[in-house]
Amino acid sequence: MTAGSERDLTPVERQAWQLLRTMPVGFIAWDADWRCNGVNPAGERSCGRSREELLGRSLWEIFPAVVGTEFETVYRRVARLRKPENIEIYYPEPLCRWLDIHVIGDIEGTGGVVAYFLDVTERHEILERERSITRSLLHASAERDVAARQAATLAEVSLALTSVDTVEALEAVVVGQGLATLGADGGAVVSPDETGNWRITLNAALGERARLTYSAVPYDSPLPSCWTARTGRRVLLPTVASGHAFDPIMADVYADTARLGWAVLPLTVQGEVLGSLAAAWVDEHEPSASELDLLDGFAAQCAQALHRIRATQQERQTAREVRELAEALQLALLTPPPTPAGLQIEVRYQSAQDAARVGGDWYDAFEHTDGSTVLVIGDVTGHDSTAAAKMAQLRGLLRTLAYTADLTPVADGRTPADQIPASQPSVSHVPAGGQDHPDRSSPLAAVLSALEHTAAGLGVDALATVVLVRVEAAADPGDSGSGADSLRTRTVHWCNAGHLPPILVHADGSTEILETARTDLLLGFDTHADRHDHSAFLPPGAVLLLYTDGLVERRGTSLDEGLDALRGVLTGLATEGLTTESPAGEGPAGEDIALASLCDGVLAAMAPRTGEDDIALLALRATPPHRSFPAGP
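Above: the chain's sequence. Below: its structure in token form.
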């Protein structure tokens, strides 16, 4: 992206591009002809080429060494099947790096692919160095008959170190097994803590008093283990006299640990000192040359393991930060719901597990100038920053069009009940006229048609599913002809553009899917598609639930199974509310089900862990005119 084109971006597009540009994860996009059409700075660094050297050039021309490799196979398979894949692979010349690559198909279906990748070369190099050191230890044990058994046991401990993934686990292996294998009578591992001071882990043989006294010490502590951790220089204190000569603090160390011989070695990787390893003996002890070789080898192995653990933790921290950035961007595009009189509204958004999958799911709710309440649930196809940007554009356009439109249908003298066909006992259907001349009997359909035309005219090229809902304002008691029923029952109108159907949860806990005879086409395919308005009664205490597909779609299960599971959860939560939260003698029990608890319960049951897709959820309940209820517990 050039500086000029960046200036032409909308605020949301600029925010999305800023996210890509600042992500520590590499990003690169290839079109259907395998030419680069997008890259962020992290991608430039990982590829070893500038944006100018990449944009417009063929993948196979830039990196000819990948032709015929697994890399090409995976890329072409993802482009063909549009199913994301994750691979960890060695990228040959000219990069010569290990990369962890997440490849997804182009969301617009043009045949290209988009890749997010982390450079994990350092982790592979660390593991290789660990294996090399282990092989060296095994070789040394074969050459030294005297130390053969000791070296072989040490090699087993070294192999155990290659599988640890936390500093605590490393310390447990070193002080619990390694030091005894070296023939020492105790010892410790020193590493920096979060405050910049030293954390010292001593093995149990040195006693509880020593472990409590020396578990945490200042950075400038005169202890030999801390001095070695600061300077990277080995310290040998074979006698008490040598210890006293090093520093007077050793008198306390001898008294606290009952150990008179000490050897301290630095934990160093590529010139960086990560800490120190201390070995101790009950009596004064001068380590032999073979013992020092084993100590040096074991310290090197510990250092490599510690370095790998830190690198892994940094990778995880980076992934968490990217995820937090993605969620912050998504949530910044959503707004809290209004609080219209006589209605309760709750919204929820849960992001996908993949840190880089900024989704296109959204919700919206606002009060119209005619006193009604407008609700929206939608999902733009795709799971990246582009989808989020298009979602923000569609959301803004729809909010403006719906707010400024006359959403009141032309009265035809019939109630929703009069319009309900016999085959559909609770839903009425109002067909829309031609989209070039919107029918006032279907104003919501006219708004979605206008949205589609406007988006196409402004170049917002996106496929999206949407449900647009209008909840009528409660009848004015002073209106002529308004009776008890009109005071208690509202009418809800909606138009569904290819989205999952709303669900109505009645006050008695029963559920009803607001299905229609036909489902209108999603937005973005045909600007002249016929669209239709529908209507149903919304009694007080009933809950209208709008949701996106991430709530009900699962691998290995059908959509009908997902909807049945959701209805079962809703019935269970509503029934539980009927029996536990209803004050005696105060209206229908179902009215007292806390809407916030219902939403949280649905997410906990249907998506207890962050899944593969975003989830947006919007719930509305009409309360009786004589009392209102809190939105949450």
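DSSP finds 20 helices and 22 strands in the chain.
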